[in-house]
Amino acid sequence: MSNRRGRLFILSAPSGAGKTTVARRVVETTGRVGISRSYTSRPARAGERDGVDYNFVTADRFLELRASGAFLEWAEVFGDYYGTGTSDTEARLSGGEDLLLVIDVQGARKVRQAGVESVGIFLMPPSFGVLEQRLRGRGRDPEAAIRRRLATAREEIRAFAEYDYVVVNDEVDACADRVRAILLAERSRRMAMTAGAEGVVSTFFASPGNGPGA
Ligand code: ADP
Ligand code: 5GP
Fold it and tell me: Residue 56 phi/psi, 5° resolution?
């Protein structure tokens, strides 16, 4: 089944709910799945590497790429541009890799509106209070940014209804196990299995008389 095409999984959650942590855990524990590398116009944070965490570009370059139709989806999030490259995504899916798109709810809507086949997974923090603790505990954002992220979370949380699956991120390993289970189940869907199943069926009719009694 080496010519199997990969599937696109969208993982969305309010900022701080744990989608990056969970996506990384899923990739560590599951074969043939990777995280899509987005383009962003935001500056790299300490420890982030260009071409690893994101493709960091200037806002002008981002807009050029967007105008040339390079993005499967894009969104402006907290004042910066973010987008998923169409050709990168296509190359990885055609190579048989499943891809996790860790993107916000606006981007997820664009993927669906474009009619691109995808499986949507929405991660929920256990509560608003826990989300606030995680944002603060991450120690990355100044107070104003934390407040902005929490206000956006209030707007985004009901978007869970737009996704195929909802997983509460109470504990990282348990949450990653559930996301992994979704991934594995989706791989066995009949539509995803048709080519492989036809291959098995063909062995039933390959040539007469090559069965056990022949
Ligand atoms: P996101 O990518 O959704 O913005 P992160 O993956 O950066 O969120 O997680 C936000 C913070 O919460 C990080 O400090 C991370 O270590 C922590 N975190 C994530 N999931 C859990 C969890 N299940 N329990 C406790 N802390 C978590
Ligand atoms: P951060 O700056 O914290 O890495 O990401 C901020 C937000 O941007 C997160 O909600 C993240 O999911 C979202 N994001 C990251 N990459 C993309 C992308 O390619 N497209 C969209 N729509 N959102 C993205």
Answer: -85, 125
* Distance from the alpha carbon of residue 192 to the mean position of ligand 2, in angstroms: 28
Along the 214 residues of the chain, how does pLDDT read in single tens digits?
456 899 999 999 999 999 999 999 999 999 999 999 999 999 999 899 999 999 999 999 999 999 999 999 999 999 999 999 999 999 999 999 999 999 999 999 999 999 999 999 999 999 999 999 999 999 988 999 999 999 999 999 999 999 999 999 999 999 999 999 999 999 988 777 787 888 888 999 987 665 565 5
pTM: predicted TM-score of the whole model, two decimal places: 0.92
State whether the beta carbon of 73 lies less than 6 angstroms from ligand 2.
yes
Non-local (6+) Cβ contacts of 186 within 8 A are 7, 9, 119, 192
* 148 pocket-lining for ligand 2 (C-beta < 6 Å): no
Ligand 1 contact via 99 beta carbon (within 6 Å)? no
* Dist. CA 194 → ligand 2 center (Å): 34
Does any ligand 2 atom lie closer than 6 A to the CB of residue 82? yes
Q: What is the CATH number of domain 8-192?
A: 3.40.50.300
Instruction: Please report, for residues 17, 28, 41, 160, 164, the alpha-carbon distance to residue 184 in angstroms, rounded to integers and kept in the order given.
Output: 23, 14, 34, 21, 15
